[in-house]
Amino acid sequence: MSDFANRIDCKIIRIWSLGTMVSFFFCTFCQAEALHLQKARSYTGKEDIKGWVMSEKLDGIRGYWDGSRLLSRKGLPLCPPPWFLKNFPVFELDGELWSKQGDFEFIQSVVLDVEPGPGWEKISYHIFEVPNQPGTFLQRLDRAKEWFKTHPAPHVRVIPQILIQDRSDLDRFFIEVESRGGEGVIVKNPNIPYQTGRSAHLLKVKKARDMEGLVIGINKGKGKYHNAMGSLTLKLENGVVFKLGTGFTDKVRNNPPAVGTTVTFKYHGFSKSGVPKFAFFLRVRAD
Q1: Nearest alpha carbon to residue 155 among 67, 88, 200, 242
Q2: For a tag on the chain, would you pick the N or C end, based on fewer CB atoms within 10 A?
Q3: Distance (Å, rounded) from C-alpha 128 to C-alpha 135?
Q4: Residue 247 DSSP one-character state
Q5: At how many degrees (to 10) do helices 2-17 and 21-30 cross?
Q6: Catalytic annotation present for 224
Q7: Structure pTM?
Q8: In 3D, which of 115, 122, 129 has the Cα closest to residue 155?
Q9: Per the residue annotation, which of 46, 57, 86, 204 is the catalytic one?
Q10: Alpha-carbon torsion 80, 85, 88, 91, what sign?
Q11: What is the pLDDT of residues 154-206, one digit of tens each?
């Protein structure tokens, strides 16, 4: 039943992507509502994390399994080949679709394609949460581990969690992750029941902070970029609006992200008015 539902959703998206009058007819049917998921806050170094657990933060595409479909964080159905979902459980899973470090563009192109291609053979699903299950965080993860023991799926893994005995454990692990090209570390209080939204019990540790903004305007450039995009006007989750003008390649400037697109940028702190300082474009988030 889950394979059938997934194929139907993917076919609807294919119709929508044709850009014809048929897509316009189906547009309201294809609309998806963003999922209410766990979100990490940035680690400040002031938190008491003794007894918490940590794991590598993977830079892929988030995939939420609702028991019958694999969805993006925005609630859009993803279209993996049937074999990928064959042994998935009837309960929910939250994880990252990933291949290797520094491979985000490839991952995004494969995972968001409405026609499942051979690239899926290089994609694995890394579970970091089992939503809406009782018990502690580690007990919830055990539910997934037990399921896949009897329903093998070689491309599915439960992300290992490492106990933090003191701050030095995190420092050493962060250096290890960073040395192999990793994005950062996730730190989590394992004793908290499942909850959604941004939480003080779930923290991300990264050398350079990044965040996302919604493109609400495209501003013409000057000088050598007088015929191209000069900056993007972004709106942050908290309502702050600012212009992002650095980090773009000529290719992006000549073909800028459309209004309504979400982009990721890195920054170093905030101004008194809440504007990210030294903001630098990283990528378009198509998921």
Answers
A1: 88
A2: N
A3: 15
A4: S
A5: 140
A6: no
A7: 0.73
A8: 122
A9: 57
A10: positive
A11: 999 999 999 999 989 999 999 899 888 888 999 999 999 999 999 999 999 98
